[in-house]
Design goal:
Blueprint: E1 3-16, E2 19-32, E3 39-51
Antiparallel strand pairs: 1-2, 2-3
């Protein structure tokens, strides 16, 4: 084996008062074992939100 890749990805979301909010986390680690042993690591954190709104007229009014 000349190289190694490791990845982890986690995502969670919830619905609160017609708003969808969440969190995404990912980690990537790459290593190369040929010649000089070089590699890289990357960590990402993301927050997201989405408003769920109604459009048009409601029935019964």
């Amino acid at each position: 084996m000349d190289y190694l890749n490791r990845r982890v990805y986690v995502s969670a979301s919830t619905l609160v008062a017609r708003m969808d909010i969440g969190l995404q986390i990912s980690y990537v680690d790459r290593r190369n074992f040929i010649g000089t042993q070089v590699g890289s690591s990357q960590f990402r954190l993301g927050l997201f939100g989405q408003f769920n709104m109604r459009a048009g007229r409601e029935l019964g009014r």
